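Appendix B. Raw example, untouched.
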Amino acid sequence: MEGTTGNMTSKSCPEPHRAQSARTTLFKQEKNGKTYRIPALIYISDGQTFLVFAEERSTPRDSDAKVLVVRRGSPQNGSLHWSPAQTLSSACLPEHRSMNPCPVYEKKSKTVFLFFICILGNTTEHNQIFTGRNQARLCYITSTDYGQSWSGVTDLTKNVIGDEISKWATFAVGPGHGIQMKNGRLIIPAYVYYIHCSCWPFHFPLNVRPHALSFYSDDCGITWQMGGKVQMKSCECEMAEIIDHSDRSHLYCNARSSSGHRVEALSVSNGAAFDKSHFAQQLGEPRQGCQGSVLSLPVPKPSDEDDKKQNNCSTRLDTKTWLLYCHPTNKTKREDLGVYLNKSPLNASGWGRPWIIHKGPSGYSDLTQFEEHFACLMECGEKSEIEEIAFVQFELSDVMDASDERAS
């Protein structure tokens, strides 16, 4: 990656150690072509429960996605026990396929909201962009028993997007997790292919560009609104809350790009508008980009030795939170999934070097924190990144050791 840490290749990163021993395959591609893709992960501390979601597809193609599936993980006798895969039969609309799971947990009502999109038939994203005719719907289901049972589907498309949909060639949520900010606002990351210019009177799209945005709720998920768009070309995204030393919130967006580097943006209005966006020079993208995951975490309490180092250093931490980011580290193809740490997330060049969590073909991923530990749900394999979806536990110290190193 390029940046203040110098140039490096994934081969120069430390080999994973704890990650490999804790790895659990949760979904595996079958010989008949059935494939599981697009992982999403949350941990609910109230119920000490992991929820992992994925798309079940009849083939690897996006157009052959069918339904969403879930597995529940809970600690038993010192290890994690995983329930069998459950088909989310209510997470669908007639004659539509369900895609892009995006869960968020609302703490006050103890409700899991699982957002997703429903797309008519086998209509591809490319077809929608080319014709300017959106075929996607914004939907969610809920659970109040930590994912054991689920509600019927709610279609928000008309009430939340409304007439604006005429300017949307297509859209999607996430994929990956949403967040609840400290003020209670629920954030669902999303992106839209916006029609900036069309040929009148045929309404044929002439200029369609992707933009990251969010949907949000300030009343525990009863009603939802549409946030502002990131102005730079930006696609699949996740968001995290950064708290500065004045206790002000900054909503951080990390988005996929086809320009060789990730797009980062900040909002001081909790997603109503994004004022600052730029290319993250230290976070590269393979050709055409890839989804990535971002997670905020409280700055860990320093040890006595760390306190001495801090007192001898002229710099001061500028936030009460750090950021973790997970993404393939190879610049040309989806390989060598790495976890990056940013100890100064309001600094555009604050990312350290990555810790490799999977060496080899890697794709989409999602991060979560559980108690003092961390976990990643990732697409990975030996020959292809779509061979399986695996769950890996790791420690912050694993990432810090790699992040603090400097390339020679």
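End of appendix B.
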